[in-house]
Give the backbone structure.
Amino acid sequence: MHATSQILTALADELVALRRDIHAHPELSWNEQRTTTLVTDRLSAAGIRHERLSRTGVIAEVGTEGPVVALRGDLDALPLEDRSGLPWASTVTGVAHACGHDVHTSALLGAALTLQELHHRGELRGRVRLFFQPAEEVMPGGALEVVAAGGLEDVVSIFALHCDPSVDVGQVGLREGPVTGAADSLVVHLSGRGGHSSRPHLTEDLTFALGKLLTELPAVLSRRIDPRAGASVVWGHVEAGVAPNVIPVEGRMSGTVRMLDVQAWASAEEVVRRAVGQLAEPYGVEAVVHYTRGVPPVDNDPAATAVLRRAALTVLGPDGAVATVQSLGGEDFGWYLRHVPGALARLGTRTPGGRTYDLHQGDLVVDERAIGIGAALLAETAVEALAAASA
């Protein structure tokens, strides 16, 4: 058994208990106070240097000299109901860890404790900076706060894991190049002269216009953005009116704009704004667009991906690393990669032969063996990256 796994064997029960505690007490983006305190208390007990960010989140560091490698985990939960039915299900109404960030946090803390032990033994060849990052689930993401706080100063490479319930526990998905998509937030507010539904010609039929925008905007983007970019508009919330015989005076819809290509991402906002105006104009309604640039694609550096692959071979064996594909999911880890090279891996959380769950769904269940595996993989990745930086 390699050194990181040996150390983590003694921590296994603690890390599972920590994950269950965090899962039962989820906190939304920028409100992760309790989770931040859990992390800082354990770091303090281990003698690991750390500093809280201005609102929530922590930057910690292990080691005293040499090159710096960074590891990131995220803290926040989602605004939806926990339907897992587990004994450690969320105790907070309308908030749940349905994206696996409780696993990310626990695994990163396990890596921190492991690396601290290696440092005490004199076996760590450099420094490892650990970002317990807030607010990954909102755009443009808490990664920007970590960068603004100087977190990437002197960092030569950065790594992260994200739970993947389509990959078996004991395996990790790897890919060179883009592994996620760009993601932006879109809100369109419509207003116009309402009236009785028997006289739509005397009104500005806002609900009809809203329906046209819902269906036509995705179609317009498919013709105004290179189709190879995979541009996609998906609406998650639509509202207008309260009575079946009243044409309302305002309505609102919100969703996401996603694409695979960073060049298309640069022009997407202008295309969307122009298209919304053109689609709304025939109906006489006023359309106000609130467009928030979210996150760039995560573009895995080949050398960093090779480091992850070597770590996976050490921790998981020859069958541990599997190929993965680029998705349209957004990840603010992409902001870090605009400053330093790095890579994100997909951590398998599916019990072999078991059900394949989906992220951002309240019934998500992960195989908890992924916690220790994730911790070992992060720690070993840091060791491998420091060796590469020192070579």
User: Anything to note?
Assistant: The chain has two domains: 3-180+297-390, 184-295. The radius of gyration is 23 Å.
